[in-house]
Amino acid sequence: MPELPEVETVCRAMAAHLVGRRVTDAWTDGLRLREPLSRTAVRSLVGERIEAARRRAKFLLFPLTSGRTLLVHLGMTGNLVFRTGQNAEPTAHDHVLLDLDQGPPLVYTDPRRFGLFKVLTATGLARSKWLRNLGVEPLSDDFDGNFLHTACEGRSRPIKNLLLDGHIVVGVGNIYASEALFGARIRPTTPAGRISRPRMVRLVAEIKAVLQRSIDHGGTTINDYLGSGEGGYFQQELTVYGRAGEGCLVCDKPITNKVLSGRSTFYCTTCQH
Q1: 4-127 with 145-267: one CATH topology?
Q2: Is 58 a residue of the active site?
Q3: Catalytic, out of 34, 208, 258, 263
Q4: How far apart are CA 23 and CA 26, in angstroms?
Q5: CA pair distance 261, 53, nearest whole angstrom
Q6: Which of 5, 21, 48, 58 is flagged as catalytic?
Q7: Which among 6, 13, 1, 4 is positioned nearest to 81, based on CA atoms?
């Protein structure tokens, strides 16, 4: 599943190559994604110009000249790619194609069809169930050690689970939670309410650092995610995630894999406490 760094990578690619383009034609196969894919809504994009590319949590928002917004979520296997180069040939998983006044067409592709592709009015965007009640952005100044310590006060849930709670902080994701907790030397199973403020400060710093490093490397490219068509390289720098049984990079003891709330969690029982 694309996580925040992967979505940010796509957002930056769209900001560089899509913003300012006008849609000259639009096609969709109409197959249902997470919600029905409206042929009428997709066709209504013809004549619209893409004004900006933004990210909120793992959603991509593209404001249009009409005042509406194109809202996209990549789901587990979705992507936005330009129909050029290694992506030049159509696939069975192409669900939306937008011809543009300049450059190659833009395609939304999604093999497992868990994503979203919606055109919303300003009112619809403000009321969208997908955007309501989202937590703080992890790379923003609002997300700091004091915020996380306060949010976790009195909580008995494992800290790893709290980091994946999108009502508290958005987009940290399973991979990056494991990596940040290792960097902060905090065991993922530790009850969140027992972690001191200074340790929360360090944890937040690690979260920001690991996310920024991954963005700089183009994401992790775990499993199905293909980024902008080029692989991300952060996977080569993972310290604990996916390394069960391998030696810890600090103490050489085997990395442990434990399932927390249905998610694989990797940590070192010696270095993290």
Answers
A1: no
A2: yes
A3: 263
A4: 7
A5: 33
A6: 58
A7: 13
Among 156, 177, 150, 168, which Cα is nearest to 4's?
A: 177
48 a catalytic residue: no
Tokens of residue 62, six digits? 């593209």
Domain 4-127 part of CATH 3.30.930.10: no
Q: What is the pLDDT of residues 166-205, one digit of tens each?
A: 999 999 999 999 999 999 999 999 999 999 999 999 999 9
Q: Where are the domains of the chain?
A: 4-127, 145-267
Q: Is 3 a catalytic residue?
A: yes
Question: Exactly one of 3, 6, 8, 48 is catalytic; which is it?
Answer: 3
| CATH number for the domain whose boundaries are 145-267 | 1.10.8.50
CB atoms within 10 A of CB 76: 16
Question: Is 208 labeled as catalytic in the residue annotation?
Answer: no
Alpha-carbon distance of 107 to 26, in angstroms, equals 10
Low-confidence residues in the chain, pLDDT < 70: 219-236
230-263: pLDDT as tens digits: 444 456 689 999 999 999 999 999 999 999 999 9
